[in-house]
Design brief:
Elements lengths: L1 E5 L7 E6 L5 E7 L3 H11 L4 H8 L11 H14 L1
Helix pairs in contact: 2-3
Pfam family, one: TSCPD
GO molecular function, one term: nucleotide binding
EC number: 1.17.4.1
Length: 83
C-alpha cells in the first residue's frame, strides 16, 4: 500500500510511504527538503516495522520549528497504518 501526505511546517513538500500488508516499510520518498539526508533516512527506514520507525522519529524538531522532515515521515506512517 502506498500513501502520500502533504507535509506541513517544513521545507519538504510531501512524503510518500509504501508499506507491506503487515506494516513493514518498503520505501519512503520525500519531495523537497535536504535531499541527501532524506535519502539516507529513507534507506535506513526500509525494512523496519512502521511502528518502530514512528517511535524513533515522531516529535523530532528542526531548529526552531515544532516539527521536522523525520516527524512528517512519522505522521505519514501513522496515517498510512490507519488506512
Amino acid at each position: 500500500m502506498t500513501y502520500t501526505r502533504k507535509n506541513k511546517g517544513v521545507c519538504s513538500l510531501s512524503t510518500e510511504v509504501t508499506l507491506t500488508d503487515d506494516g513493514v516499510i518498503e520505501s519512503v520518498t520525500v519531495v523537497g527538503g535536504c535531499n541527501g539526508n532524506l535519502k539516507g533516512i529513507s534507506a535506513l527506514l526500509t525494512g523496519l516495522r512502521a511502528e518502530d520507525a514512528i517511535r524513533r522519529l515522531k516529535g523530532l524538531t528542526c531548529g526552531s520549528k515544532h516539527t521536522s522532515c523525520p516527524d512528517q515521515i512519522a505522521l505519514a506512517l501513522e496515517e498510512a497504518l490507519a488506512k
